[in-house]
## 1
Amino acid sequence: MQTSPDRHEYPSHWEADVVLRDGGTARVRPITVDDAERLVSFYEQVSDESKYYRFFAPYPRLSAKDVHRFTHHDFVDRVGLAATVGGEFIATVRYDRINADGRPASAPADEAEVAFLVQDAHQGRGVASALLEHIAAVARERDIRRFAAEVLPANSKMIKVFTDAGYQQKRHFEDGVVRLEFDLEPTDRSLAVQRAREQRAEARSVHRLLAPGSVAVIGAGRTPGGVGRSVLTNLRDAGFTGRLHAVNRAVQESELDGVPAYRSIGDIDEPVDLAVVAVPAPYVPEIVAECGEHGVQGLVVVTAGYAESGPDGRERQRELVRQARTYGMRIIGPNAFGVINTSPEVRLNASLAPEMPRPGRIGLFAQSGAIGIALLSRLHRRGGGVTGVTGVSTFVSSGNRADVSGNDVLQYWYDDPDTDVALMYLESIGNPRKFTRLARRTAAAKPLVVVQGARHAATPQGHAVRATRLPHATVSALLRQAGVIRVDTITELVDAGLLLARQPLPAGPRVAILGNSESLGLLTYDACLAEGLRPSPPLDLTTAASADDFRRALTGALADDGCDAVVVTAIPAVGETSVRDAALAEALRAATASAPAKPVLVVHVELGGLAEALSAAASTAPQAAAPAPGAAGSAEPLSPAEPAPTADSDESGSRLIPAYPAAERAVRALAEAVKYAQWRRDAAEPGRVPEFEDVDEKGAAEQIDALLARVEGVEGLTLDAGETRELLGRYGIGVRPALPALTPDDAARAAGDLGYPVALKTTAPHLRHRADLGGVRLDLADEEQLRRAYAELTELFGKPAELRPVVQAMAPRGVDTVVRAVIDPAAGAVLSFGLAGAASELLGDTAHRLIPVTDRDAGSLVRSIRTAPLLFGWRGSAPVDTAALEELMLRVSRLVDDHPEVVAVSLEPVVVAPQGLSALGATVRLDRAPVRDDLGPRTLPVY
């Protein structure tokens, strides 16, 4: 690397892995003096036309002077980046800082000339677009604000790279050259372009793993049994539509179970898209290298012995990812259970699941193999939970998720036409900020249901995640804000998924209940109330009800404009047969056809025949040989070659009705659907971030810079009371002054300045904001009362130096609240609200929203805490000024969003009166602005 004294240190933080348009990966890194041979080799592989476009003249080879110029950079005024695959250059970009005359310059010149060169074989993969994002980020870091580029008019591809990037630009034509100039400050459009490209690239990379044209299982044993041989068998038995290969160094035969066998992947004389690696961990690096040399696009590593096994394994895992990305490959795993794609065009079961689930509309993602097995079991077998069944579109078990994560799979599901509902089991979230962004976009198109494991324990050893200071309840609330349906168990995960996959979203919370059991109807009614739904009194059809009675009652309920959903309860009658079960199911399904926009659920008790009939022709249970004649639940095995019916409608196209064995489970799933439907309606009109004319953004920035300059090299700064009031005041946030009172005379003078009545309170850390401990005296009308209160406090709690008493003018009576904002290193900026006091803290009654907060967010924040009725006139009290409270939260949000150096704000208490509010205490903490990776160029995470 470069070490000359006139050059900066090698900027290793500019190194990054990126996903390209076709789903492959490339490494972006600075070019150094060690790259001379690579640069020459790269240039030799570029066509004469591309060279002409780069240099505006025939330029067959680079001179020694050119090589020196293009490999010697100071990483400030001259910077070059290369995109590499397999260690070799596939594209380069460089900038040179220039002055107003276009000559080489140094700072403070803030313009640079930029130029690209992409190997012809890699053009069209989005390499130049990715390099532009990274070189622009580097330039901004080096205080360059504008790029200029000169392009020949015939070079339409490069002109498109610049014009499509979304930056504000100027374009003019002179001397036969198109000159483009554009500012590098990210805009809404440039961020939208960047994220759209990210989505397409990451979705494509997952698609290459889930829909390969050929698969090689490396480590397939010569005898039955073992992980590799099991995966090979599962792929073969599922009827994989592509080409299948077995690889084992010790194999002597030409086939294993009818599958062509080879000693090395290099012996396969055709391309291999996906390799399943099932060899011991020490042999994996050699296998990865062979796969990379053969052009394999992706790996599923089922091998264990990586980060889950300790520090040595974690380093092996990092090296595995680095090695795979060097060759442009992505990895599922290691320690993965595998992947499944039930599409009839693919029929991929590259997993340890012995049976292929039937096709359906639910996508499954699980970080844990054991939970993945449980999810497949719950969805694809009758009994043991939900008795109605549905099918799977794709299944991914990521294991240690060293590379491909839930974020990548969300990118794929977002526009996957075969997936209507996404179910995810997560034990950790590697990038919460990005996950929240992707979840919000996905949830606007299709339901996303998440259960998070390891909520109260350490992150699983195999998972490297960013540290977060937010408790799980806060993360959960932020996910709900993003439209995620958060549940606590895999049973609830499946319950909600079945309803969302089969039934339409409810238009509201009004629920009709009907059935042949009064008791079961009442249980359902109570469950609806407990979940915040609005049930009508149950309609009891009595145990003598026929199938036709159920049909008429359900038809009537669905026709009622005051009903948004129907729960049907059913118990078996004595002597009832399976034929009558089928008749009842058919009656219910016939009734639903009259109102296709309203969801219907069934609660059944020990009525297996009904559940089977409701899910007729949709079983996704693993098929076994037919049982003896007359045995219950007999079914014909499904041949791998047979196309299976879809799971979410029967052959007539009518909807399937989900059945639940308990009222509470059905109602809980319905309640989640109601909340999600409301979120979808709200998301269509997300609100706005208001502008405030009295905000002094420039003055606040200058004050923050000056304050941080005083503590250069120190980690963070907590402002004193005066500095806090000044900074908050610039954003229209007033804080009542509190004057120190170290003696009774000080207290009397302070009260005289402020005016009676006053409050006397301690600010010692152990008594601060704890009025319940007696450290506050209110409504002191005169000096006599003030001195008496001062004596009482010092007698009860200690010396004034320990108590740090202050005097503050009384505020109008109201409800005490707390408003806080914090920048979390993983989740980003978060605004929190709750009522002040020990009770709210003890119950965790605090609501949270991501910053920037819209006016709609602020309104919902006020109303989402359990104690919100106290703000709206509970038990005859006067309603308080919630409009002023919402405006305060919007101003705090604006302050933190405008100035990322403001890493924490706490307003406590904020007394909200019937007219106006008063912030009685405030603290502000500053620190150097944290890196916003969600605003930077696209990169793959490095764990």
## 2
Amino acid sequence: MAESNATQVILTDDGIKIINAQNTADNAASGVTNLNDPNLMSVIEKQTQASQYAGLTSQYNVVLARAKDASISTTALTTAYTNLNTFMSAILTDTTKASDVNRDTYKSLTDAYNTALSNVQTALSNSFNTDIDNMQSSVAVASQAASSAAIVASQATTTGNNASQVASQAYSAATVAQSAGNNATSIANSASQAASSAVLAGSAATVSANKASADYQTLSAGVKDGSIVHITTETVIDKGVIGTAEIANGAITNAQIGNAAVNSAKIANLAVGTAQIGDGAITNAKIGSLAVGTAQIADAAITDAKMGNISANHITTGSIDASKVTVASLDAGNITTGTLSTDRLNVGKLSALSANLGDVTTGSLKGVDIVANTFSTPNGSFTTDANGNVVASNLTIRGVTNLVYNAALLGGAGGSNSSIPGWTMGTMGYFSNFTLHDGVPSIGFNGSTGASTRQRLAQSKLYPLNGLTGQPYSASVWFIDAGSDATMRYQMVLSFFDASGNRLPSGNYAGVQVSGTGSAQAWKYLTINGFNAPSTAVYVAIQYWAYNGTGHALFSSPMLTQTAQSTGYQPDTGNVVSAGEIDGSVINGSTINGTTFHGGDIISNANNTAKYYPMTITPDGAYKSTYFDSAVGLQSSVESGAISYKYRSMIGSGQYLAYDSVINGQGFESQSGYTSAKDTTFSNPETITGYVNVTPASGIYLYGPTQKINFAGNADNIGSNGITMDAYGNIYAQANSSYWRIRDTNSNDIVDFGIDTAGANNIFLHRELDIGNFHINTGHTFTSADNQAIHFAMGKGGAADIYAGAVHYTSLVKSSLLSVKRDVKKADTAYWAQLVNSIDLATYQYKSDDNTSHIRLSSIVDDVNDTKQWQLPDVFISRDENGKLSGVDDSVLLNATLATVQEQQKEIDQLNGHNMELEARLNKLEAKING
């Protein structure tokens, strides 16, 4: 019988290290409590807030200055900023230690500032639009006024006889032009010199009016005979009296002509020439309505020098060269005809240009936001409509500059076998979701590299250069040292690789290094700037390394760009097309990264609480197919190099069936169990009741009471006449099974195991059965292979009983060694002879004997009658292990018979002695008689 040995459990040094490591992890987790306290602003958060708040203050100062220039109220914005500044200054005074913070107050002050800032920015935008509208109107008015002024001036030059009226009208026209110009100036200034060309036109008209006034002064100097004539409103000059020769040069000045004194009747045709009007003599007040006609002023008689201030109200027709007019403020509403050259238009804001601008065919727009209902290229190769639909014959979408795939370490799993999608992890690198920089997880090292030994902690996904060699690449990362030996060295390396993914040799990569100090170091920003990609490079990536000692440090927020200088961290979201649809039959391209694909619509079923689609491909490369109905939820996926299948029952009470199967490079695994709640997300904890593993290493591995291998039988009775093997390897017959057989390749029976439930089919061995030295062959023979004795023993010790028919033997040996016996005493042979003599002998036959059997003789064990009919002392009766009568103990009976023989021998000896004594007496008596 086999014995089982006791199992001894020894706690090794590794086990103790595991316990100590767990204690250390527990202590570290408790140390993170303050970082997770919402009412405490940590040092890291304060340093980040200080940088961000400096940017907010700069933005506030710029917006405040612009609002004041536009006469927009900033009271609410100033109040909100002052309140926020008071709150933040108290917190950010010392950024080297954490401070208590009231998050509700902080949020309310920030919201108030953002609301006030948004209101001022909206008002600035509205003001911008209004200025441009006014500028358009002013430009139109000034243009029309300048045109009218030029026409009047032309008429004045052909009218010589009515000089005073010409001067008066020209003066009035110039005054109006100046007034319109002044009005246009205030608006055009807001529009940043948009009407400069029209201003020049107004200036030219003013100069012409001044010239007319100068010519008029000659009239006061004298007439034909040189005498001086003072002209008043009551003086009448006959037609033809004053001609061009009668008015001295510069005789007529502004002072010599009364308001409205000169009309068309007072000036003869061609009476006034350019020489007869003093500079600035003709003003708005000196010319009456319709006083000067085209016939009264000689051609070119009124020049720029002769015109004083002329009101544009008197300029009605014609055109003015815009280069001759300088306008301070121009009402664009009065610009109705002609062309405005854009090289003369300097505009600060175009929001007021509300009219249809027509087609802009040349030039470029730089550094601006374009907001439009529709947009298209001239040939229609790219168009967008008002609903945001994009139609493009060839569309390339370029992302942001971070070339590190999954720089945010999404989907990372920690522990001794850390994994991060898109990253290759070294044996000593691990994923940390506890040490974060601005919310981004880290890749860490915590251990010993060994002396002068380098360990690669992690490597980002290889990014293809697509032939862009010789271009500068830069990288940056945040680094923190939680405590490292002074001998430790940490590196971030900007590495380039060949087509096989092998890193190029030294000189073809760049690195930045941090040394340990023997204590902790705060977050540091590490950069590598402008390293040109080698000509043999095919891929680029970043690597983290640790070297020469023991330490604990982490890297976070990596950034890799094709730039000459490193830039701040951005997550690699640039290759995502979102908030819309891409419709088309073909998408051509080598790679689509970081994209989620959905097939069909969200499954419409109450159990689909996670809003699954029938098919989804996630950015980490996982493919999922999902199905729901009222009874079950099914999901299959291809991810991490494996195919998995999940079955979840939607019906249950406390237990919901859950089955999972996985096929991967190691083999196949299927497990059964249940969840305590309905698992609509395929992620609830499971209680495993059994599993089946099929792997090249372990073969078929079964666990659990429900895990079996069923051999279903043949097609005639499938599933009921084979066998079933459970997780223990036990074999069970199925309902209609008869035999479980072992046969050779020729279908010859070797063993037939009867497995029917009725027990009618036996076990047949068709070959010799060898059990150690004990062989049972087909020749009715039990053989001792080593020629030694065959023992029949009981498991509890001692020899076992053997039940047999006739036993043929050459010798019968009973073990009677004194060495194996106890309580040995000399037997009372007379007693045993007496017992033997009390035995009733009988002749008989067994009920199974036939008529040919010979008669049998022995004692009888009476197992029938309560009052025994056949005498047999109990000492001669053998009983089985249950105490039931089984037969006669021939061993005792034989030795009792020997005792009887000995007693008889004693009696014989006594009788022989007595006989001899009688014979001697008889001899003596015969001798006497014969004597």
